[in-house]
Design brief:
The complex is a heterodimer of chains A (about 110) and B (about 110). Chain A is mainly β. Chain A has no helices and 12 strands. In chain A, strand 5 and strand 6 form a beta hairpin. The chains are: A mainly beta (about 110), B mainly beta (about 110).
Chain lengths: ~110, ~110
């Protein structure tokens, strides 16, 4: 089955430290991968996407993600976390079910402590 | 440039009633997808509209139906509401499915 998984419900990191939010996927064919962020009582905001090309993708707000085909992973990273980065992060993948749709992981809550 | 607009922002309905949620996509976008996000969970795909037709559907019962208009705006209809339909309903627009979505802020539906 085509799917996306976020193995951590919550990630805690101190402000100024690097952060990683993990994502693994299972799709047929070449993956189209996305990261979104959600703040309380709001819709999701697009951060970045991987379609093809360089395995390191840069996105909004200083975030980047590394595509690893052999490990079927697409981890979200930031070199130096800010308290304002505290939010809910979703990994998503486009899947082919006779047409295309995007499915989302269960989400990872990021807490950045001052 | 307006983003995705959803209305209403909040709604309270009684079990068994029907509800219609509305979405205006971002200017230039032609594809609208609807998602249901229960509290503490990731968004679950309901269906997707393109060229006024339902192109893809998730694992939702026929009580959930939709429509897309010539101006690309869309409606989500839910009949015979159940308590379990209480959730945040998100509309996302895109220019084809190959690119990232732009999401609206959602409609919070509470069924009592």
């Amino acid at each position: 089955a085509q799917s996306v998984a976020q193995p951590e419900d919550q990630v805690n990191v101190a402000e100024g430290n690097p952060l990683t939010v993990k994502c693994t996927y299972s799709v047929s064919g070449n993956p189209y991968l996305f990261w979104y962020v959600q703040y309380p009582n709001r819709g999701l905001q697009f951060l970045l996407k991987y379609i093809t090309g360089d395995n390191l993708v840069k996105g909004s707000y200083g975030f980047e993600a590394e595509f690893n085909k052999s490990q079927t992973s697409f981890h979200l990273k930031k070199p130096s976390a800010l308290v304002s980065d505290s939010a809910l992060y979703f990994c998503a993948v486009r899947v082919d079910t006779g047409g295309f749709k995007t499915i989302f992981g269960a989400g990872t809550r990021l807490f950045v402590k001052a | 440039d307006a983003g995705v607009t959803q209305s209403p922002t909040h709604l309270i309905k009684t079990r068994g009633q029907q509800v219609t949620l509305r979405c205006s996509p971002k200017s230039g976008h032609d594809t609208v997808s609807w998602y249901q996000q229960a509290l503490g969970q990731g968004p679950q795909f309901i269906f997707q509209y393109y060229e006024e037709e339902e192109r893809q559907r998730g694992n939702f019962p026929d009580r959930f139906s939709g429509h897309q208009f010539p101006n690309y705006s869309s409606e989500l209809n839910v009949n015979a509401l159940l308590l379990g339909d209480s959730a945040l309903y998100l509309c996302a627009s895109s220019l084809t499915v190959n690119y990232g979505y732009t999401f609206g802020s959602g409609t919070r539906l509470t069924v009592v």
